[in-house]
Amino acid sequence: MKKVLVALSVAVATASANAVTVYSNNDSQVDVGGYFDVVLGKFSKYQRTDLRNNESRINFQAQHNLGNGLKVLGYARLRFDDFSNGVFEDYQANTNTFNNPVTNKLWLALEQDGIGRVSFGKQNTTGDAVQLNDNAYFLGGNNNLYTGGNKVVSFRSADFELSAGQTLGFGADYVFGDARKDTTTVNLKNAYGASLFYRGDFSGVVLNLNAGYTIESKDNNLSNNGTGRKDKSWRVASRLDFSGAKLGVEYGKTHITDSTRMNVMNFLNTHYLVGAEYQVLPSSRVFTQWKRKVEVGKTAQYIYRRTDYYIIGADYDIAKNVTAYAQYAQKRMNNGRRSGSTKSKDSLYGVGLRVYF
Predict the structure, then answer these.
(1) Any transmembrane segments, and where (predicted)?
(2) Under a CB-based contact definition with an 8 Å cutoff, are residues 308 and 291 in contact?
(3) Distance between terminal CA atoms of the chain?
C-alpha cells in the first residue's frame, strides 16, 4: 500500500488555514490563528435574550523539522469560557461566557511522514474525529465516544492508499485519569479507544466512513481503588460529498453501568445524527441537522428519555475571514418514568459573527 501524509485534525487544520506565521527560522516555525465568535439570541424559554461568546479561541502551533520526514510539534489553544456543560444546551449553566482565558488544549507531538503522529497532553482523542456531520454553529453534534481529556496519549496513523482515490487510516488513544487512588471521590480512572477512517473519491463523489469504540472507567466511592461507573461506547458515521452538497448519517450506542450506586445504574443510550448542507453560492451555504438521544434505564428510576433537536441555518462570508450566520433550533423532550411521562418543547435561535485570523 502506498503511504500518504497523515491529515491534521479538523481543529488544527481549520486554524492552520487562517493562521499567521509569526516566526520562521531555518527548520522552525510558529503560527498563530483562531477566531472570535459572538452570537446574539434567545437560547431557552426560561431565559432572556442574551449575548454570548461562541467558543472563541486563539491557537498557537510551533513545529521544528528534524530531517528525514520527522518533525516535532507543539500546540496550545486558549478559550474564554470554562463551563463543563454546553452553555447552549443547559439553560441553568453559567451564561457569562466572556471570561478569563483558560487552557483548552496543550500537547506535544512527533510526526513521521508516511507513518503518523503520536501526541501527548491535553487534547482530543481520535474518537472526536469520528463524528462527521456536525455542521451547526451551536447545539450541533452528539458524539457519544470519549472525545478528549487532560492527559491523553494519542496515535493517528498516516492515511494509507488502498487503491486509486481510496485511503484508510486508524487511531488509538489512552487517557490517564486521576493519579490518586483509594479515595471516596469519583474521578476518572482511565479511558481508551480505537478508531478507523476511510475516504473514497469516486469520480468527484467522495464517501467518508468512520468508526470508533471507547471505554471510560471511573473510581467508585468506597476507598478501595475499585471501578464504579463504566461507559462502553461505539459509533459509526458516514458522509457523501458531491456537487457542493454534503449528506451524512451517524449512529452510536453507549452502555453505562455502575454497581456501586444505591439503585444499580444500567443505561443503554442510543444516538442518531443526520446532517445535510448545500453550498448555494461560493460565499454562502444552508445547512440542517437532526439529532436524537434515547436513554433507556433498566432501574427503578428513569425508564425512557428522548431528546430531539431540529436545526436549520445559513451563513454568508462577508469577507475572506468574516462569516455571518443565523441559526434556529427546536428542542423536544419526552421524559418518562414508571409513574408516567412528560413532554416539553423549546425554541433556540441566534445570529452571529465569526472573524478568523
Answers:
(1) none
(2) yes
(3) 38
Distances (CA, A) of 99 to 1, 86, 96, 212, 323: 49, 15, 7, 34, 23
The grid cell for 135 is 455542521
Domain boundaries, the chain: 2-356
Amino acid occupying residue 83: F
Residue 163, C-alpha cell as written in the block: 487503491
Strands (E), 143-226: 148-157, 160-163, 166-176, 188-202, 205-219
Q: Which of 274, 153, 127 is nearest to 212 (CA)?
A: 127
Cell numbers 503518523: residue: 116
CA 311-308-266 angle, to 5 degrees, is 145
Give the model confidence (pLDDT) of 65-93 as tens digits. Answer: 999 999 999 999 999 986 656 678 877 77
- Nearest-angstrom CA–CA distance, 6 and 117: 8
Torsion angles phi and psi, residue 118, rounded to 5: -120, 130
Query: For the domain bounded by 2-356, which CATH number is listed?
Result: 2.40.160.10
Among 53, 34, 33, 35, smallest CA distance to 43 is for 53
Residue that is written with C-alpha cell 476507598 in the block: 223
